[in-house]
């Protein structure tokens, strides 16, 4: 059994999220997803969809075995509970691989940190970020 952790806000779901979770799932046999608490999303506009609703929707996705609501204060608390073998970062996640590896080592957690690629938008009009979807809604409905 190889346990994998992915994480993110997952506010309004789109194919980029699915691509990330499929790539993360390919690193092991069981995928756990940590869904960020609204109060911790401070590097961009906070999510519109409530915490538990985002958790429920992520858990319903095919590559996902279990979705967990993140801890409010310490992002390593769920990691200590899940005990993953691999943490997979998304292409644009601001977290630094080396800093996460150092924090894991300090806590005595033996876990690899990997980063995966982006699903890029081609000419097929797909909306591959929550921000893009919100911009489109504002453009077309406001
Ligand atoms: C290893 C790891 C564990 C995380 N655990 C939590 C957590 O417990 N609670 C939380 O609110 N955010 C947690 N986060 C942060 C968010 O999942 C996420 O990176 C960020 O807040 C949302 O931004 P994004 O959707 O742009 O990635 C964690 C991030 C990493 C890399
Ligand atoms: N197009 C994409 N291709 C691959 N991974 C993606 C894509 N969009 C989001 N992800 C990944 O999904 C996870 C959650 O992303 P997040 O919830 O921040 O969505 P987002 O669409 O990037 O949001 P926003 O547009 O608000 O920045 C992150 O790990 C992120 O890297």
From TrEMBL:
It comes from the Archaea. GO terms for molecular function: ATP binding; FMN adenylyltransferase activity. Pathway: Cofactor biosynthesis; FAD biosynthesis; FAD from FMN: step 1/1. It catalyses: FMN + ATP + H(+) = FAD + diphosphate. InterPro entries: Archaeal_FAD_synthase, Cyt_trans-like, FAD_synth_RibL, Rossmann-like_a/b/a_fold. Keywords: ATP-binding, FAD, Flavoprotein, FMN, Nucleotide-binding, Nucleotidyltransferase, Transferase. Its EC number is 2.7.7.2. Pfam families: CTP_transf_like (PF01467). ATP binds at residues 9-10, 14-17, 92. Its cofactor is a divalent metal cation. CDD domains: cytidylyltransferase. One of its GO terms (biological process) is FMN metabolic process. Residues 6-134 form the Cytidyltransferase-like domain. Homodimer. Belongs to the archaeal FAD synthase family. Catalyzes the transfer of the AMP portion of ATP to flavin mononucleotide (FMN) to produce flavin adenine dinucleotide (FAD) coenzyme. This is FAD synthase. It comes from Halapricum hydrolyticum.
């Amino acid at each position: 059994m190889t346990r994998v952790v992915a994480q993110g806000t997952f506010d309004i779901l789109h194919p980029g999220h699915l691509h990330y979770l499929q790539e993360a799932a390919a690193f092991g046999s069981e995928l756990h997803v940590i869904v960020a608490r609204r109060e911790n999303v401070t590097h961009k506009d906070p999510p519109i969809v409530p915490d538990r609703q985002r958790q429920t929707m992520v858990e319903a996705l095919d590559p996902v075995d279990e979705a967990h609501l993140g801890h409010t204060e310490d992002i390593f608390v769920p990691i200590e509970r899940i005990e993953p073998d691999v943490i997979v970062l998304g292409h644009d996640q601001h977290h630094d691989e080396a800093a996460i590896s150092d924090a894991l080592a300090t806590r005595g957690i033996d876990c690899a940190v990997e980063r995966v690629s982006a699903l890029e938008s081609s000419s097929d009009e797909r909306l591959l970020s929550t921000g893009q979807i919100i911009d489109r809604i504002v453009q077309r409905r406001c």
